[in-house]
Design goal:
- The structure holds 2 protein chains of 2 kinds.
- By secondary structure, chain A is mostly beta strands.
- Chain A contains no helices and 11 strands.
- Chain A has strands at 5-7, 10-13, 19-24, 31-37, 44-50, 53-57, 64-68, 74-78, 87-94, 104-105, 109-113.
- In chain A, strands 2, 4, 5, 6, 9, 10 and 11 form a 7-stranded mixed sheet that branches. Chain A has a 4-stranded antiparallel sheet with strand order 1-3-8-7, with no helix packed on it.
- In chain B, the strands form 2 sheets. In chain B, strands 2, 4, 5, 9, 10 and 11 form a 6-stranded mixed sheet that branches. Chain B has a 5-stranded antiparallel sheet with strand order 1-3-8-7-6, with no helix packed on it.
- Chain B is built from no helices and 11 strands.
- By secondary structure, chain B is mostly beta strands.
- Classes of the chains: A mainly beta, B mainly beta.
- The interface between A and B is medium-sized, with 33 and 24 residues.
Chain lengths: 114, 112
Protein backbone atom coordinates (compact mmCIF):
# COMPACT_ATOMS: atom_id res chain seq x y z
CA UNK A 1 0.00 0.00 0.00
CA UNK A 2 1.44 3.35 -1.06
CA UNK A 3 -1.11 5.59 0.64
CA UNK A 4 -2.06 7.09 -2.74
CA UNK A 5 -5.72 6.68 -3.56
CA UNK A 6 -7.66 7.37 -6.74
CA UNK A 7 -11.34 7.61 -7.54
CA UNK A 8 -13.32 6.31 -9.23
CA UNK A 9 -11.87 2.89 -9.99
CA UNK A 10 -13.67 2.53 -13.29
CA UNK A 11 -15.56 4.96 -15.47
CA UNK A 12 -17.45 4.70 -18.75
CA UNK A 13 -18.16 7.83 -20.80
CA UNK A 14 -19.22 8.63 -24.34
CA UNK A 15 -17.41 10.76 -26.89
CA UNK A 16 -17.70 14.49 -26.28
CA UNK A 17 -18.38 14.18 -22.55
CA UNK A 18 -16.22 15.57 -19.79
CA UNK A 19 -14.63 13.62 -16.93
CA UNK A 20 -12.95 14.42 -13.60
CA UNK A 21 -10.57 11.99 -11.95
CA UNK A 22 -9.32 12.41 -8.40
CA UNK A 23 -6.15 11.58 -6.57
CA UNK A 24 -5.30 11.77 -2.89
CA UNK A 25 -1.55 11.93 -2.36
CA UNK A 26 0.50 10.23 0.32
CA UNK A 27 0.69 12.12 3.58
CA UNK A 28 3.58 14.60 3.61
CA UNK A 29 4.01 14.67 -0.16
CA UNK A 30 3.90 17.99 -2.04
CA UNK A 31 3.89 16.89 -5.68
CA UNK A 32 1.40 14.99 -7.83
CA UNK A 33 2.07 13.73 -11.34
CA UNK A 34 -0.49 12.28 -13.73
CA UNK A 35 0.19 9.61 -16.35
CA UNK A 36 -1.88 7.99 -19.08
CA UNK A 37 -1.28 4.31 -19.83
CA UNK A 38 -2.81 2.85 -22.98
CA UNK A 39 -3.21 -0.91 -23.16
CA UNK A 40 0.13 -2.66 -23.62
CA UNK A 41 2.15 0.56 -23.34
CA UNK A 42 4.22 2.26 -20.70
CA UNK A 43 2.69 5.25 -18.92
CA UNK A 44 2.99 8.65 -20.61
CA UNK A 45 3.47 11.83 -18.57
CA UNK A 46 0.52 14.23 -18.71
CA UNK A 47 1.50 16.94 -16.21
CA UNK A 48 2.77 17.56 -12.71
CA UNK A 49 1.61 19.84 -9.90
CA UNK A 50 3.94 21.16 -7.22
CA UNK A 51 2.49 23.24 -4.39
CA UNK A 52 -0.69 23.93 -6.37
CA UNK A 53 1.10 25.14 -9.54
CA UNK A 54 1.55 23.24 -12.82
CA UNK A 55 5.21 22.27 -12.95
CA UNK A 56 5.71 20.57 -16.29
CA UNK A 57 3.47 19.19 -19.00
CA UNK A 58 3.78 16.37 -21.50
CA UNK A 59 2.54 16.23 -25.07
CA UNK A 60 -1.17 16.40 -24.28
CA UNK A 61 -3.71 18.91 -25.65
CA UNK A 62 -5.22 21.71 -23.52
CA UNK A 63 -8.43 19.73 -23.03
CA UNK A 64 -6.41 17.84 -20.40
CA UNK A 65 -6.26 20.10 -17.37
CA UNK A 66 -5.67 19.72 -13.68
CA UNK A 67 -5.74 21.19 -10.22
CA UNK A 68 -3.89 20.65 -6.99
CA UNK A 69 -5.51 21.63 -3.71
CA UNK A 70 -3.95 23.00 -0.48
CA UNK A 71 -4.01 19.50 1.01
CA UNK A 72 -2.03 18.38 -2.09
CA UNK A 73 -4.82 16.21 -3.48
CA UNK A 74 -5.37 16.63 -7.19
CA UNK A 75 -7.87 16.42 -10.04
CA UNK A 76 -7.43 15.58 -13.70
CA UNK A 77 -10.11 16.95 -16.01
CA UNK A 78 -10.57 15.87 -19.59
CA UNK A 79 -12.99 17.74 -21.85
CA UNK A 80 -14.46 16.66 -25.19
CA UNK A 81 -13.55 13.01 -24.67
CA UNK A 82 -12.26 11.05 -27.65
CA UNK A 83 -12.11 7.29 -28.15
CA UNK A 84 -8.30 7.38 -27.83
CA UNK A 85 -8.64 8.76 -24.31
CA UNK A 86 -9.60 5.26 -23.19
CA UNK A 87 -6.75 4.24 -20.88
CA UNK A 88 -5.63 3.67 -17.31
CA UNK A 89 -4.95 7.02 -15.63
CA UNK A 90 -2.35 6.90 -12.89
CA UNK A 91 -1.38 9.50 -10.39
CA UNK A 92 1.84 9.48 -8.45
CA UNK A 93 2.82 11.50 -5.41
CA UNK A 94 6.29 12.43 -4.27
CA UNK A 95 8.14 14.72 -1.92
CA UNK A 96 10.25 17.04 -4.03
CA UNK A 97 13.06 18.48 -1.93
CA UNK A 98 13.12 15.51 0.41
CA UNK A 99 15.77 12.87 0.88
CA UNK A 100 14.38 10.89 -2.02
CA UNK A 101 11.88 11.86 -4.70
CA UNK A 102 10.60 8.36 -5.36
CA UNK A 103 7.20 8.53 -6.99
CA UNK A 104 4.49 6.39 -5.41
CA UNK A 105 1.60 5.39 -7.60
CA UNK A 106 -2.08 4.95 -6.90
CA UNK A 107 -4.15 2.03 -8.23
CA UNK A 108 -5.35 3.99 -11.24
CA UNK A 109 -8.69 4.87 -12.82
CA UNK A 110 -9.73 2.84 -15.85
CA UNK A 111 -11.54 5.16 -18.29
CA UNK A 112 -13.49 3.72 -21.20
CA UNK A 113 -14.81 6.09 -23.87
CA UNK A 114 -17.53 4.68 -26.13
CA UNK B 1 15.02 12.88 -27.52
CA UNK B 2 15.01 11.01 -24.22
CA UNK B 3 13.69 7.49 -24.74
CA UNK B 4 13.61 4.31 -22.69
CA UNK B 5 13.39 0.89 -24.30
CA UNK B 6 12.77 -2.54 -22.83
CA UNK B 7 13.45 -5.76 -24.68
CA UNK B 8 11.95 -8.34 -24.84
CA UNK B 9 8.32 -7.36 -24.59
CA UNK B 10 7.49 -10.74 -23.06
CA UNK B 11 9.46 -13.48 -21.32
CA UNK B 12 8.43 -16.91 -20.05
CA UNK B 13 10.66 -18.93 -17.71
CA UNK B 14 10.28 -22.03 -15.53
CA UNK B 15 10.04 -21.59 -11.79
CA UNK B 16 13.38 -21.40 -9.99
CA UNK B 17 15.29 -19.85 -12.86
CA UNK B 18 17.40 -16.72 -12.40
CA UNK B 19 16.58 -14.07 -14.98
CA UNK B 20 17.60 -10.63 -16.18
CA UNK B 21 15.33 -7.92 -17.55
CA UNK B 22 16.91 -5.24 -19.71
CA UNK B 23 16.32 -1.51 -19.97
CA UNK B 24 18.18 0.96 -22.18
CA UNK B 25 18.01 4.75 -22.32
CA UNK B 26 19.21 7.19 -24.95
CA UNK B 27 20.38 10.07 -22.75
CA UNK B 28 23.13 9.13 -20.30
CA UNK B 29 22.57 12.27 -18.18
CA UNK B 30 20.05 10.37 -16.11
CA UNK B 31 19.24 11.60 -12.58
CA UNK B 32 17.87 8.30 -11.35
CA UNK B 33 16.25 5.15 -12.65
CA UNK B 34 13.32 3.36 -11.10
CA UNK B 35 12.01 -0.18 -11.62
CA UNK B 36 8.31 -0.91 -11.15
CA UNK B 37 6.08 -3.93 -11.10
CA UNK B 38 2.54 -3.83 -12.49
CA UNK B 39 -0.04 -6.57 -12.03
CA UNK B 40 -2.81 -6.77 -14.67
CA UNK B 41 -5.15 -3.79 -14.49
CA UNK B 42 -3.41 -2.42 -11.41
CA UNK B 43 -1.20 0.52 -10.51
CA UNK B 44 2.57 0.52 -10.27
CA UNK B 45 4.57 -0.79 -7.33
CA UNK B 46 8.03 0.70 -6.93
CA UNK B 47 10.67 -2.03 -6.63
CA UNK B 48 14.02 -0.26 -6.67
CA UNK B 49 15.35 3.24 -7.30
CA UNK B 50 18.97 3.77 -8.33
CA UNK B 51 20.48 7.23 -8.00
CA UNK B 52 22.85 8.36 -10.76
CA UNK B 53 25.76 8.15 -8.32
CA UNK B 54 25.00 4.51 -7.52
CA UNK B 55 25.80 1.39 -9.51
CA UNK B 56 23.24 -0.96 -8.02
CA UNK B 57 20.49 -1.51 -5.49
CA UNK B 58 19.27 -4.72 -3.89
CA UNK B 59 16.02 -5.75 -2.26
CA UNK B 60 15.54 -9.39 -1.36
CA UNK B 61 15.75 -11.48 -4.53
CA UNK B 62 15.93 -8.37 -6.72
CA UNK B 63 19.07 -6.56 -7.82
CA UNK B 64 19.07 -3.59 -10.16
CA UNK B 65 22.17 -2.15 -11.79
CA UNK B 66 22.78 1.10 -13.60
CA UNK B 67 25.51 1.78 -16.18
CA UNK B 68 25.18 5.37 -17.36
CA UNK B 69 28.05 5.17 -19.84
CA UNK B 70 26.39 2.38 -21.81
CA UNK B 71 22.85 3.67 -21.23
CA UNK B 72 21.69 0.43 -19.63
CA UNK B 73 20.01 -0.88 -16.53
CA UNK B 74 19.23 -4.46 -15.63
CA UNK B 75 16.87 -6.02 -13.12
CA UNK B 76 18.06 -9.40 -11.88
CA UNK B 77 15.51 -11.70 -10.27
CA UNK B 78 16.91 -14.68 -8.41
CA UNK B 79 15.08 -18.00 -7.98
CA UNK B 80 11.95 -16.85 -9.80
CA UNK B 81 8.53 -17.81 -8.46
CA UNK B 82 5.07 -17.89 -10.09
CA UNK B 83 4.16 -14.90 -7.90
CA UNK B 84 6.79 -12.88 -9.78
CA UNK B 85 4.58 -13.01 -12.90
CA UNK B 86 3.75 -9.42 -13.80
CA UNK B 87 4.83 -6.62 -16.13
CA UNK B 88 8.09 -4.95 -15.15
CA UNK B 89 8.64 -1.33 -16.16
CA UNK B 90 11.74 0.78 -15.95
CA UNK B 91 11.61 4.55 -15.95
CA UNK B 92 14.27 7.22 -16.11
CA UNK B 93 14.10 10.63 -14.55
CA UNK B 94 16.40 13.46 -15.67
CA UNK B 95 16.06 16.08 -12.97
CA UNK B 96 14.99 16.19 -9.35
CA UNK B 97 11.23 16.07 -9.17
CA UNK B 98 10.94 15.63 -12.92
CA UNK B 99 8.73 13.37 -15.00
CA UNK B 100 9.29 9.64 -15.33
CA UNK B 101 10.04 8.43 -18.86
CA UNK B 102 8.88 4.83 -19.11
CA UNK B 103 9.83 1.90 -21.26
CA UNK B 104 7.11 -0.26 -22.76
CA UNK B 105 7.55 -2.95 -20.12
CA UNK B 106 8.48 -6.62 -20.13
CA UNK B 107 5.67 -9.05 -19.36
CA UNK B 108 7.14 -11.86 -17.28
CA UNK B 109 5.48 -15.25 -16.86
CA UNK B 110 6.99 -17.75 -14.41
CA UNK B 111 5.62 -21.24 -14.99
CA UNK B 112 5.26 -23.67 -12.05
Amino acid sequence: ETGVTQSPTHLIKTRGQQVTLRCSSQSGHNTVSWYQQALGQGPQFIFQYYREEENGRGNFPPRFSGLQFPNYSSELNVNALELDDSALYLCASSLVGGATDTQYFGPGTRLTVL
Amino acid sequence: KQEVTQIPAALSVPEGENLVLNCSFTDSAIYNLQWFRQDPGKGLTSLLLIQSSQREQTSGRLNASLDKSSGRSTLYIAASQPGDSATYLCAGIYNQGGKLIFGQGTELSVKP
